[in-house]
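pipeline stage [seq->struct] | target=Replication protein | organism=Roseibium alexandrii | residues=418
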Amino acid sequence: MSSTQQIASFRKVSAGILASAHLASQEDRPKVTKKEISLVLKRVAPALGIDGTAYHVLDILLGLVQPDDFQAGKRPVVAISNQRLAEYTRRTTRTVTRCLKKLVEAGVLAYRDSPTGRRYVYRGSEGALEQAYGLDFSPACFNLEAFKVQADAFQRRIKAEQEARRAVTRFSRAIADMAELEPVEFHGFAARAQAIVIRDELNVAEKAALLESLYAQVLALHEAHSLKNKDKMSCAGDIDVSPLFITTPTDSLGSNSQPTCSNEQYTKFPSDNGFAVDMALEKEPCGGRTETQRPKSQVGRGGGGKFPETNLDGVSIGLIQSACSSVQAELGVGLSSWPALCGAAEQLRMLIGLSPSGYQLAVERQGRYLAAACLAVVAEKALRDPEHIASPGGYFRAMIDRAGEGKLHLHKSLHGLV
């Protein structure tokens, strides 16, 4: 079979058509498979601008080409008329002609025209091509490695744009929440953030960078205000408090069947966070009966030693993962384990506009697991219904306060979101 590549005289030749014809006329075609060609072409199609009807035509041609024709000594040619392609795609023949020209100029196909302009394939007794005129996939074989690089670059660019769009949403929302928290100090920042978002001359990556810089200024100003207010607080009214010592004999402790105060506190707070335990021991010292201690009836019924429910009772990481679907989609993270949830806490904190000091205080009071779970719940509710929660940061602090009072039922909120 002749390898000379011919282009009919009725075609309007362009540089892309000539380049594809030159590749198809070469004998040393790289050895590839139909499967490999199909996967790469479908990945690179968006980067080449092949979409809509052109992509439909490419899919049809890939389905018609024979796998054996990609072997050495053969030629991957598809002989199908424009009229038949128009019937398959439900488009006009002129539309099909334009789509084929786009594929040829992109380096996917090459015209292999017969003297009469018809497309046909003649095979010998053993199935080998003797004459083949139609649409040749040889240029795609030569351009396969370049297409792989182009497809990878396109995927990286799409991923970067997605991350930038998420960052724009996250930073603009955080700045707006800070403006609602302190309208006087941060109102100007909210207006500047809105102006950045609506600037058409900036791409999404530039908007994300500007908003991140603006949010850093907001955080710096917030920290400065917090430090200034802290310096104004006077410690003149503090009084010395004598330490409380346990004078109960050891024998009585060993003979007491009721759980001790220390056991109750260590059971209530998660063992993963020493801050929570230390705070518990400071707020509820053992010894004599005080107003902050719970009545014995709340510790257990009938002397059975049953401890009160903690704020994480009934809460599993699987429940959090099922309830916080919008958060995972927005941030592009998976909450499949407690370390993963704690690792996403910084993004969740920025999403709801909570200051770093506010989150650190919540961790010290209730532990990092409960604080991260509350962040996920608040962020999920804010994403689903932004108008329902005017101040997500204040909502989070209220949850931590309720947890300190033993009134937080986190598992009910999670089941409601599910």
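stage status: PASS
auto-comment: The radius of gyration is 35 Å. The chain has 21 helices and four strands.
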